[in-house]
Design brief:
Elements: E1 21-24, H1 36-48, H2 50-58, E2 81-84, E3 99-103, E4 107-112, H3 129-137, E5 143-144, E6 153-159, H4 162-173, E7 178-186, E8 195-202, E9 211-213, E10 219-229, E11 232-239, H5 246-253, E12 281-289, E13 296-300
Parallel strand pairs: 6-12
Antiparallel strand pairs: 1-2, 3-4, 4-6, 5-6, 7-11, 7-12, 8-9, 8-10, 10-11, 12-13
Helix pairs in contact: 1-2
Length: 316
């Protein structure tokens, strides 16, 4: 079996905690591109405009493996690698900090605030937990072992060294990490708790809300009552599976939609972030056996949630 060659490393340093984009010039049997400029215009003019591509070439934004700026008139050479930094979208700063709960030579456990994406995606690039931590901790190779939804606060495990990442990702893939969440939602005395919710959840690309559909269950969550005050309650949520928006969908299905949820039960119109009304969902604890050292690991988020009693201790 033919082994795939390792991609060359970038000659460009990170910018704002974001890696440079790498481009491999594809094969050109039809000889459509005589020069590098012609290919880059075909490739990116539709996304950023031909004028911007030309401007980036003039600015020396595209570089070769040795870090030297590429001349657009250079002859096209299939298989060549180029690097450049994309233009970052304008982003409003999330006015909350990422706290570090634990750090050693292998991992960083971060306590992510609401509204901050775990890693770059879509219009959220530099305003992400990954970009911030790379800059603040001077750890350019830092990568997340898993993801936490942008609107959800709480614990995220990051891996410091690329060679260790697979071991920690495997823990999450094989469900060897015990995760517990807390949420604030309406209190219903008629709802018998604890309860285990099982259903089939599907989410279509481009559609904001996931939905429950008939069929074999692919999502399971346990819901427990922790505290109650007036018409609200604090719940402990333990997901057995990890479907998109699973806990939010299951709480809504129980008639207990999580406080300030902008999607369930009703999708709100897109607009400016309301930082004063965060989704009241928190990844409270991570418990696992370290795959490299064999040590038991137990971490708790320190973030407050809803003011309904103290945080719950992690349980197995």
């Amino acid at each position: 079996m033919r082994r795939r060659s390792k991609a060359p490393s970038s000659p460009l340093p990170q910018h704002e905690g974001i890696d440079a984009a790498r481009v491999r010039l594809p094969e050109d049997p039809e000889r459509a591109w005589a020069t590098v400029r012609e290919h880059l215009l075909d490739r990116y003019a539709g996304a950023v405009g031909a004028e911007r591509v030309e401007e980036m070439l003039r600015e020396g934004r595209f570089v070769g493996a040795d870090g030297t700026a590429v001349d657009g008139e250079e002859a096209y050479a299939a298989g060549r690698h180029l690097w450049f930094h994309r233009d970052f979208p304008a982003e409003e700063r999330v006015p909350f900090e990422v706290d570090v709960v634990y750090r050693d030579e292998r991992i960083v456990v971060a306590d992510k605030p609401h509204f901050l994406a775990t890693m770059p995606r879509g219009r959220h690039v530099t305003e992400t937990a990954l970009a911030r931590l790379r800059r603040e901790l001077d750890l350019p190779e830092l990568q997340p072992a898993h993801r936490l939804d942008r609107l959800t606060a709480g614990l995220v495990l990051f891996v410091v060294r690329p060679e260790d990442r697979g071991a920690y990702q495997t823990l999450f893939r094989d469900r060897l990490v015990h995760k517990a969440y807390e949420a604030v939602a309406p209190y219903d005395p008629a709802r018998e708790l604890p309860v285990t919710v099982r259903s089939r959840i599907e989410k279509e690309r481009g559609v904001m809300a996931a939905r429950e559909v008939p069929g074999e269950p692919n999502a399971e969550s346990r819901v427990e009552l922790l505290a109650q005050a007036g018409g609200l309650a604090r719940y402990r949520l333990v997901p057995v599976t990890g479907r998109t928006h699973q806990l939010r969908v299951h709480m809504n299905a129980l008639g207990l939609p999580i406080l300030h949820d902008p999607v369930y039960p009703v999708v709100r119109e897109d607009g400016p972030e309301d930082f004063g009304r965060p989704l009241q969902l928190l990844a409270r604890s991570l418990v696992f056996t370290d795959p490299i050292t064999g040590e038991p690991r137990r971490f708790m988020s320190r973030r407050p949630l809803g003011g309904l009693g103290p945080a719950a201790e992690p349980q197995l």
